[in-house]
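Need residues for this backbone.
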């Protein structure tokens, strides 16, 4: 970030919380465009409609969609009653996702079991604990640890024969059963429009933070077969991508 400030760039574009917070702490004058962020839950901005300051951009709504991912899992598994949630209590967006899931879980009559982790070294023990509680599926919360351990999480989920879901498509591509969330490619394309407006003179404080308009569901059919799960045809038909 110090190098970018030294180069006196016109706009900084960020894609994850650590980048955005580093940029926010480094400058209050250079516009910072968030390409795919959860700005409210991480405290980056105080308001979606009027973010003020120098940080406009796109929100990916990861915590708010926690309940929706439970609904989709319920379609996969109509008898679903016990779900393990892999989350990091030290990370605000992960904690907020955990909290957001509780009410939808009650409405769906699903009991959510906590699988707390703090580092990749905690994954094996977390899965062993989940196995002892006889959970039916796994929901992975957004967090730097989970984001950088997607392949290992997918492997452990298959090993324990657990249907699993995360919010970005890479999880399904790396062996997770399903991904459901905003189309991040679309968010990055829309971020370019913010950059264009700013370079043409728009004030960052006047640009609202926008919500996702496109969502995607990716299903790994190969993983479903490995864990002995049959995907209902109506759910499979709604998938934007099926990995065979």
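Answer:
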């Amino acid at each position: 970030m110090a190098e970018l400030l030294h180069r006196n760039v016109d706009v900084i574009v960020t894609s994850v919380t650590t980048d955005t917070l580093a940029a926010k702490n480094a400058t209050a004058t250079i516009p910072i465009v968030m390409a795919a962020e959860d700005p409210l839950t991480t405290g980056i901005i105080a308001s979606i409609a009027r973010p003020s300051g120098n940080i406009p951009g796109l929100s990916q709504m990861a915590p708010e969609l926690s309940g929706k991912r439970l609904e989709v899992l319920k379609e996969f598994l109509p008898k679903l009653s016990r779900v393990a949630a892999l989350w990091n209590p030290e990370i605000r967006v992960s904690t907020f996702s955990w909290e957001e899931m509780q009410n939808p879980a009650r409405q769906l009559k699903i009991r959510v079991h906590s699988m707390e982790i703090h580092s990749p070294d905690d994954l094996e023990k977390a899965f062993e604990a989940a196995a002892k509680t006889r959970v039916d599926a796994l929901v992975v919360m957004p967090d730097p640890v989970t984001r950088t351990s997607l392949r290992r999480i997918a492997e452990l989920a298959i090993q324990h024969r657990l249907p699993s879901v995360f919010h970005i498509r890479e999880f399904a591509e790396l062996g997770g059963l399903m991904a459901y969330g905003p189309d991040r490619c679309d968010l990055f394309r829309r971020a370019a429009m913010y950059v264009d407006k700013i370079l043409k003179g728009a004030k960052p404080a006047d640009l609202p933070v926008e919500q996702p308009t496109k969502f995607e569901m990716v299903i790994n059919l190969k993983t479903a077969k490995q864990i002995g799960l049959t995907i209902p045809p109506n759910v499979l038909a709604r998938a934007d991508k099926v990995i065979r």
